[in-house]
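Input/output pair, single chain:
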Amino acid sequence: MNSSIKHVGQKSFLVTIGNVISRIINFIFAIIVGRLLGAATYGEYIYLLSFLSFFLSLSKLGLGSGAVHFLPLYKEDPQERHRISSLVLMIPVLTSLLIIALLVIFSSSISEHLLNDPAYRTNFLMLAPSILILGLQGGMLSLIRGSKRIKEQIYVKNLIVPSSKLILLVVFVMVFRVQNIYSLIIPFYLYTICVVIFLAWRLKTYGLIGRFSFSGPMAKRLLQFSMPLLFSGLVGIISGNIDQFMIGYYLDSSQVGIYRVARQFAGLTTIAYASLLTTIGPVIAELYHKDKIGELKELYILSTKWVSVFNLLLFGMLLLLAPDLMRVVGPEFVSGSAVLVIVGLGLIVNAMTGTADSINIMTGHPRYSLYTKLVVMGSNIILNGLLIPRFGIMGAAVATMVAIVLSNTMNLMFLYHHMRFQPFNRQYLYILASMGSSALIVHLLMGFMDFHYLYRILLVSILYALLYGFQIFRYLVNQEEKNMMRSLWKAISKKA
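Output:
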């Protein structure tokens, strides 16, 4: 097993632990919001952030991915790395300030015509400056990711941000008795500003930021690489948030809140995939620059297989427990159970195509990502516009599922076109069979589980995980992978 696979495996395992902790904290956050503030308040907050996310993506100019691509190339050149970091941070600051000024000037028209409710104007103005702060935070995290400093990213994204968000929410709601949207907006600014200060300190320690250093040739290279990703990122943000925005436009904020919670639960299945994306980008770029294509292919196939294994482990639990999980947040959220399952189905395809999009970008084909996202955005807008007025949040879920399937299918086709990579083999039939048989057995046993839904969640999760895990370990894991698991466990245990 090559060294790149071991590196990605160990780092992804660490990030997965961080992601699990983060998801747990975020679900506690969702439960508190749902129980104490209700779906309408949470939905309005998400609705406004979904709209502003379009402008946030525009302000970044795609430079974050450029940092991940170029920093490994200048591993031994501190001066060039400093120039890259200067451009990645300062250019988005200027674009953010311009965008915020325009949003403030036209806030009345935006609230009335785009948000479809003039009453949103005050809260919209309060959240508009978040574009600058989140843009800085995103650029700094890209620099850390490009430098392969995974620990800081885990601390920030999976520990500092979710725990700060939860603690501040509890303080504002339970101590200061703020029972409206301000108990979400004010903590949001407090923890994001603190995170930016922390990241700036870490980057200064690593010598990546300091006095601004401009290089014309480097700016040209960065922008040439990043400009397709600007449109790709913008289109991706629109595709990822258009469902929530159009639900708020056609329906009401409470439906946005219910849909958002259902998508959060469905997103549980992406824990392993998100962990892999965090660690694999710089490794892909480094292998490609060194012309180690065979090693890159092996990394892609093996990582995709194990992401699929973890995805189906978690999807099986969601399939069996969707109503019970939504009931944890509050009775009014149970109506989103079907949304959870439908979106989860789409994320199965997401897992089984793996990091195809990242490989396309990091091997010098960012335009493929743009082409894919343009097609997906168009189909997503059309489907949401047709289905939401007729079927409500169920229509949005179907549109999202179709968009996910279409996006990942196109990414895989582009990857096969220029690299001749594809991950599928007979082992995927074993994975699907293990999930299906385990879910069926547990579903039959659930007929005898007529007790409190929290106990049912615990028991069903354990039974399904044991049945599925036994089949996977018995029929899918080879000896080399078992040895790697043991070495990873020893390394993690030693560090712990």
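The mean pLDDT is 87. The chain has 20 helices and no strands.
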